[in-house]
Every structure is written in structure tokens, then in C-alpha cells.
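ARCHIVE CARD
SHELF: 3
SLOT: left
DATA:
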Amino acid sequence: MEGLRGEPTIKPPYPAESGYMGKPTNVNNVETFAAIPVIILKGAKWFSSIGTEKAKGTKVFALAGKINNVGLIEVPMGTTLREVIFEIGGGIRNGKKFKGVQTGGPSGGCLSEKHLDTPIDFDNLISAGSMMGSGAMIVLDEDDCMVSMAKFFLEFTVEESCGKCAPCRIGNKRLHELLGQICEGKGSLDDLDRLKNMSLVIKDTALCGLGQTSPNPVLSMMENYRDEYIAHVTDKKCPAGQCRSLMEYVVNPENCVGCTACARVCPVNAITGERKEIHLINPAICIKCGACMEKCKFDAIFIR
């Protein structure tokens, strides 16, 4: 066997069609291997009695995010998202409102409150705009911005792309840039159309599963939280208060007692006002560090 330039190369010690070390080899998901012993011990009929008609057995999920009980869980196929999040997961942390759940990892989709009663199986998740994927289940609450979350999940694909095909290598970077512009208040309604069109083109033309599923978070979040995307581009506001460029720290005159604590802690002297007088924050100077809000004991500073 010779290399590209005619140099001799090392001949493989085993036939190309053989498995690892020349032995019969079964490459599979760890979760599949874990299910084999109990199926052998209890039988296929017992395993098939669990789950739904089209999806037998159980599924392991890595439950994480804004939820009280995090960790690995195993549930029968057909268990609803509501049962997983509010019964097994113990509900949303700190009494916050449920906003969404990203299933299937970075290449999955984000499902909203209207999907909570969806039975979990392969077909139902795909029909809802998501997927089973790696079994990741990340719960989001009212403080999460769905534009920045789509950008966050897309960063994984941009980093992991092998670069072989242009739709994934270039297209996902352009998607990431568009989401960044929207988070900074520089987006437009036309950009929302571009996001959707580019996402669909990438899904149709990328060579492998990574690229074909990479736009899922963008498409699902635009579908289920479109009002939030529109607010970013038309009102230049982030409803969740997470996009720093769209934040504005404001003093509530009804609560301000003029203690000057906020002015003393401001690192750029953006807050003015005499003692026992209502203070003002100059948005042109404010760096949005949040120090004033943390220092105020009278809840007189809020984010608008």
C-alpha cells in the first residue's frame, strides 16, 4: 500500500471489514448497552410492556437548568414534560415561572408551556419541533432571553463544525452574527426573515446531522417566542432583561430617599443627586454593571 506521494504506508494488521482488534465489534450508545442486561433477565415482553405503542421501554434524561431537582432520571416513554418538570424535577427554582424546555441538546428544539402535556417519545418531540437527541433536558424560566439562548446553543455548533460544507461552516456563523445583532438592538424585522430562511437552507443543504439539526433552536424559539424576537427588533427591548445592550437602569422616584448609596458605589459616576433628593442615572455613561441595584436598600432602582 502506498501513500499519496508513493511512500510506503503501514498495512493495517486486520482486514478492513473486521472489528476492533480483529474481533466482532458492536458500536452503540451506552444507554442501549445498559438496557440489554435487564432485557435478557426479564425478557423482551416485559420491556415492551413499558412505554407507548410506538416507543417501548424507558428513556434516560439529564435534567438541568432552572429546576429544583437536577440530575439523571429514567422515565417510561410517554411520560409528559409536565410530569418530568413539575413532579420529578420539583418545579422551577425560586418560584419563578416556567418559560421553556430545550430537549435533545444544542441541536434540539425549545418547547413552550403549550407543549407541557406532550407525551415524551421520538415522534411526539419531532412533531413538536424538537427531538430526543442526546437526552438532555434544560429547563428555562422567565428570566431567560430566548434570543440569547438561541445564540448560546448555536455557539456549540459553530465550535464543533468540521468545516467541510459551506452551509454549516459559513451559514451558522452568519446565523450567530444575526442573533448577536438582535441582542444588541441592531436587528430589524427583515433580519427575522433572514434568520428563518437561512435556517431552512442550512437544514436542507448541510452534509451531516450536526449541520442539518443546528438551526433547530433558532427555528423553534422563533416559532414559540416570536413576540420576544419582535420586541428586540421593534421596541429595542429585551423582555427578560438579559441583553445588556438593551438594558437601562432607572431610578424609581417613589422609592428613592436620596441616601446616595448608589452614587457612591457607581464606578463611572453615572448617578447624580444631592442627599435626600431623588437621584438620576445617566444612560449615556452607565456601563450596566448592576452595582447600584445591589447596593440600594429601598428597591428604588430597576431595569427597564
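SLOT: right
DATA:
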Amino acid sequence: MQGTSEILEQAIEQLAKLPGTGRKSARRIALYLLKQQDENVMRLADALVNLKKSITRCSVCGVISDNDPCSICTNPKRDQSKICVVEESQDVFLIEKTNEFRGRYHVLGGVISPLDNIGPDDVRISELMQRINDEKQPIDEVILALNPDSEGEATAYYLNKLLKPFDEVEVTRIAYGIPMGSELEFIDEATLSRAFATRNTF
């Protein structure tokens, strides 16, 4: 069905490319923006352009940041001896919200996925090894905080194998299990199985 406005249809087409946004949602957003004051829409447009032009990645850890190096890597109060390895920048933001980890991070920028032709050279594994080999800042623990799917498991296994020769580096991984407040009947088998495998003493 042809739209009444080609310009509106172009906007809908672009908005529909956003993750989790279908054409119906994209149309609602476009029509909402049309009702807004010009300055509000321009502020949004400026923020998006600025996002693309000004945001950078930290050359040390790989997290999305305003500055290079990022505020986490330059913070002297962070534990320099611990590195938490994550898949993407959003994982850093989530972990930081918990206030549980006070070390530094390493963002791989993806995981090993043979089906998608993504090998170890396509993610930031060599940069991680360079950091571990840096004698100025000795690392005593690498925490693997990767998603518990097949690609995350393959990447964790590969990293663990790479780090085995480093006797002074302890390789740990975050525990996976049953979320608080959930009932066993609603937990899938893989999660329940992992909860048993990673059980701790009471």
C-alpha cells in the first residue's frame, strides 16, 4: 500500500531498521516526532549525529566512551590486577550498575562463532593477551563474564586454554543459575543444569 507521503515513508523505513522496531512501531515514532516542537526534534537529531561523530572506543579496554582512555581505565582506585572479560560495552554498563566489581574490563567486541565465520582474530583476544603480558601492570585474575550460550562457551573455553600457561593468572567465571524470585517449574533445563554445576557451599 502506497503511503500519502514519500518523506514520511522514508523516515519509517529508516526507523524500522532499529533493533526491536517493526514498521508499525516505526510509523508511531515518525508520527510522534511530527507532532513535536521543531527544537525537540533538532535536539534528538543533534544528539544522534554527536553520538556517531564524538563517541570513541577506549584503546585499552575497548568500551564505548567519551574519552580515550576511558574513565574506568584511568581511575587509580580501580584494582589494576583484575580484568573482567565481556562481549560488548553494554555488559560493562550492566556490571557497573551492581557495584560488585572494582577491577578493569576488556571488551572483546563479539565472540567466536564458526557458523558466522568469526574466529579468534576477529575479536579483541590478541589485545587481551598483550595486556596480560604487560609486566608494568601484572594481572592475577581474569574473570570471564560471557553469555552462557554456545558461542560464549566456545570463547570462554578458548580463552581458558590460552591463559593456562600463565601460572600467576587465575581464570574464573561468573556463576550462572536461577534468578531470585523465580520458581523451579518455570526454569529451563539448561539454566537448571548450570545452577547445579556451579553450586556453592551453603
